[in-house]
Every structure is written in structure tokens, then in C-alpha cells.
Amino acid sequence: MKLVLETKNIDKHFHKPKDFHVLKDISLKVGQGEFASIMGKSGCGKSTLLYILSTMDTDYTGELYLNGELITGMPQQDLSRIRNKHIGFVFQFHYLLSEFSVLENVMLPAKKLAEKSHDEIEQDAMGKLRMLHIEHLAQQKASRISGGEKQRVAIARALINNPSILMGDEPTGNLDSQNSENVFGIFKRLKEEHGLSLLVVTHDEDFAKRTDRIIEMEDGRISS
Ligand SMILES: Nc1ncnc2c1ncn2[C@@H]1O[C@H](COP(=O)(O)OP(=O)(O)OP(=O)(O)O)[C@@H](O)[C@H]1O
Questions:
Q1: Per the CATH hierarchy, to which homologous superfamily does domain 3-222 belong?
Q2: ipTM strictly over 0.85?
């Protein structure tokens, strides 16, 4: 199986207010087309780990590989490009720009990457909206759509640069059960129809049970 994400022996300490060994010897692998979830008690280090895996935090020891390439130690400028191109991120809160239209929000990460023309990016963005059955919302202001719709727009935005992996930090944490189910269905379809890899931190056992693999964390370690 082709590996999309791999870590070797990741350790991290917080130094303030006192030394705290938050991540301990984290080695994990996520293959192409794999849908994995991370579970564990509040405070066990899940978000801290996801921050490192998504290349936003570089203050750790050990190694992080994306598509077989060593990411650890790369200059910030390269990291930001790799992040934008290869990693999609969906948070608990959608972080859409409320005064921009849905379409403009989805186009933003592709504009930042600046590899395609405005028209191509617009076509791609409409394609993602169609895929998520929200193309009718394209011209709506982001502030004027429902919570479930906002999360689907956030997923479309995370997919606009065709990432290798989609990461989620409690992506259904703010949603009711019907909208959570919709998001699970979308993730499953992305895996099955598009071969996307997904790694999702969740407290929702029902969600996690239906992923390919649950990575259990306990006190900064992977326990199973
Ligand atoms: N910047 C920081 N400085 C010091 N300690 C921190 C910092 N950020 C997080 N922590 C601590 O590190 C531990 C792990 O936090 P983290 O947010 O990764 O946990 P989590 O498993 O994602 O929790 P939750 O499920 O509640 O979101 C917690 O004890 C937290 O208080």
C-alpha cells in the first residue's frame, strides 16, 4: 500500500508553564485511500498531534513524511506550499469568510496556490460544490447558509487543490446527528470514489467505528 502519511518516533514537549511531555514516540502510517480516525480522552494530545501532521507545528522531534518525502526540517515557505497543495483541513468551526460568497470561499486556497487561471479555479470550485450537492449555494453569502451547509462548503474548500489527505479536527463536533451523518457519508464517498486518504480526530464513537481503523491515544501515546 502506498503511504500518504508516516511519522517516526514523534515526541513533543510544551515548556510553559512547566515542562509537559505531550506526545510520546508517535509512529503511525496512513495509506492511500485509508479512512482512519483518532480517538482518546480530552487532553491526551490529539489536536497537538494533528497540528504537527498538518505541518503547522514544527516544534517536535522525530520525522514526518508526506507521500514518502521527509517534511521535518523544511523551511517555512516550502511547508506552507506543501500544506496548501497536499493537505486539506476541516475544523470543528468552518472558518468561512462570512462576507464572501460560497464560491469565493471555495476558490481561495487555489488562488493562494496561483497555479491556475481564475476561470479554471472557478470551474474546479463549481465541480467541488456539485460533488457535495451544494452548487445551488454558489452565489450565496457564506453568512446566509445553515451550519450543515457551511461545513459542506468548508469540505469543498479543503478539497479545491486536490489534496493527498484530508484531515479533520472534530469536523462533526458542531453538527446535529443528521448533518454529522451527511459529513460521514461525504468522507466515505471521497475514500471510495476518489481514493482520498482521511484522518479524523473525533469524540463520536459511532463515527469512528465505521472508519477503516481507529487509532487510540492515551496520555500522549498511541495505545492501539
Ligand atoms: N500551548 C500549550 N502550552 C501548554 N500546554 C498545552 C498547550 N496546548 C495544549 N496543551 C496541553 O496539552 C494537552 C493536550 O492538548 P490537546 O489539545 O492536544 O488535547 P486533545 O486530546 O486534542 O483534547 P480535546 O479532546 O479536549 O480537544 C492538554 O493537557 C493541554 O492542556
A1: P-loop containing nucleotide triphosphate hydrolases (3.40.50.300)
A2: yes
